Amino acid sequence: MADFPTEQKTVTRAFLVGVQAPGMAPGEGAELLGELNELVETLNLTITRSTLVTLRDREQPKYLIGSGKAAELMAQAKAEGADVIVIDEELSPAQQRNWEEDSGLAVIDRQEVILEIFADRAQTREAVLQVALARMEYSLPRLTRAWTHLSRQRGKGSMGGEGETQLENDRRIVRDRIAHLKSEIAQVISQRATQRRKRQRTPIPGMAIVGYTNAGKSSLLNKLTGATVLAADKLFATLDPTTRQFELPDGRTLLATDTVGFIRRLPHRLVEAFKATLEEVVVADFIVHVLDIANPNVAHHFATTMEVLGELGAADKPTITVFNKVDAADAKTLSLIRAQHPETLFLSVHTGQGMDKLLARCEELAVDDNESVELLIPHNRYDVVAKLHGAGQVRKQESMAEGVRITGRFPRKMAAVFSPFILLVPAKAAKRAQKVKA
Ligand SMILES: Nc1nc2c(ncn2[C@@H]2O[C@H](COP(=O)(O)OP(=O)(O)OP(=O)(O)O)[C@@H](O)[C@H]2O)c(=O)[nH]1
Ligand SMILES: [Mg+2]
């Protein structure tokens, strides 16, 4: 934790241990270890070695893996000049302490790596608070460990004094901070709810872009809306949701929200932490699930995202599944997936291939209750003009001799208010109405 009294020591060289545990699919441990490599590189650490251990039995209380193997790995890590051992399975606080005491190195697990990346990335007040809370909760049962956390400082085991009393004090301080963070977060969340209510007063249909980290979600948002959200070839480039509006080919407006990426074994407390920001997914009218077809683990990515959507209660939302990065995929994978999923969309945000199909699907799913109309309201009916502004989307307003001419989209339930003044229903909307009927 940032302000605990600690001796500064930078951790730079990481020794990675992957685990193929009983019950995992063949090759899954190796795949996850590959991903751990990327995660650790995202933290700018040098990887001295990455090695896979096969676990025959889950019951290895001291180090998670057998003692002989653990000793061998510790010696190897030290010989290679590593200063941190990263283990790809969740370690209990006691196991982590055993590793650290016996190796004299910092020892962290996948959860802590992800927490560190989130801490590096968090920008808005809400994300900073959520990540701080997740880290505090992670460290509460681990206060006696030798390394406070990977902000790469070596702790003295506790915050100064000796023994149980000091440990109790430390725990109390951390619990107080947790309570404080929670109340700050509650405030931010209520502000966000107010903003959303304001937005919902003009009911524009919305879609949420979701998917595994690095799939191309932010790139898609930028392409659709001309936004300039950071899109980068690194994991968890985005933590905060960004909402922008754009115009569909049929002239209607749609809101698109970019969201935090998912990953296998996302620490559960982070899913909890980001549930608030992921509410955007729950309130969206439909979901665009983006997958990176050039990634060999795309099937796992699909499953992970579906799992998180399930947790959010959004698994049944209408969803458009798109395989992005077709420009980078090999022909064999493409034809295989095309055969397995004839109904999915293939896309390249980079080349623009498939964008027209995606937009057409968005038009189908963005069935809103709004009607696009042109109205002429007499000058003595400014009450109607005010209502239209309050509850609809006024696009154009012109004052003419015979009244106020307004073009816009208004909730159908307000038809009684505006229908006496309809001049015309724009051609595009009429065409769409025909299409819906047909
Ligand atoms: N080849 C290729 N690369 C793409 C395409 N779309 C996005 N990318 C690249 O993929 C990387 C990740 O893109 P982002 O848009 O940041 O991905 P994201 O899903 O928002 O990632 P997180 O925010 O980390 O969850 C970037 O380097 C993009 O340039 C595509 O169609 N083709
Ligand atoms: Mg992103």
Structural features, described:
It is built from 15 helices and 17 strands. The longest helix is centred in the middle third of the chain and has 38 residues, at 163-200. The protein starts with 5 loop residues before the first strand and ends with a helix. The chain has helices spanning 28-42, 67-79, 93-103, 110-121, 125-139, 163-200, 217-225, 268-274, 279-283, 298-311, 331-340, 355-365, 382-391, 415-418, 427-437, and strands at 6-8, 13-20, 46-54, 84-87, 106-109, 147-149, 153-155, 206-211, 242-247, 253-258, 286-292, 319-324, 345-346, 370-377, 393-400, 403-411, 422-424. It is 42% helix and 22% strand. It is elongated and about 90 Å long. The protein has a 6-stranded mixed sheet with strand order 9-10-8-11-12-13, sandwiched between helices. Strands 3-2-4-5 form a 4-stranded parallel sheet, sandwiched between helices. Strands 15-16-14-17 form a 4-stranded antiparallel sheet, covered by helices on one side. It is of the alpha/beta class and 438 residues long. Helix 11 (331-340) links the parallel strand 12 (319-324) and strand 13 (345-346). Residues 1-8 and 149-161 have low confidence and may be disordered. Bound molecules: guanosine-5'-triphosphate (GTP) and magnesium ion (MG). Guanosine-5'-triphosphate (GTP) binds next to helix 7. Guanosine-5'-triphosphate is lined by residues 211, 213-219, 231-233, 235-238, 261, 324-325, 327-328, 348-350.
